Amino acid sequence: MKRLSVKQVNNLITGTSLSIELPSSSENLRAFLTIYSYMRSSDGGIAGSRVSKVLNSNKEGLRFSFRKYEIDKSYIENDWDIAPEDLANSILKTDIESIEDLEKELSEFLDDFSELDVEWRCDNPL
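User: That's the sequence. What structure does it adopt?
Assistant: Structure tokens below.
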């Protein structure tokens, strides 16, 4: 399925991140993709407030972002802090303006969006 479900979209537009574990490029690494939303202010900067949890609130300025990365398994197994320089094969895409644009971007990495779930259900260490 190359479209996000209504439930996935509702999670994103209310500020709940989605995540999935992907196949990694090495057996020593684990790979993840995480999608989140944020608010842009009217002057183009990042707004000082979080995305509203109210589904039917004003979503003007809502933007989406995702990060695909790999991390050495030892960081997860030992519960070590992770800095950006510890990430391998990291891709960060920000300022995605619509769900449709997000789906186009994600289709490069995922064949089936149905496995994306709320971030806390995934082992995502970030």
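The chain has three helices and five strands.
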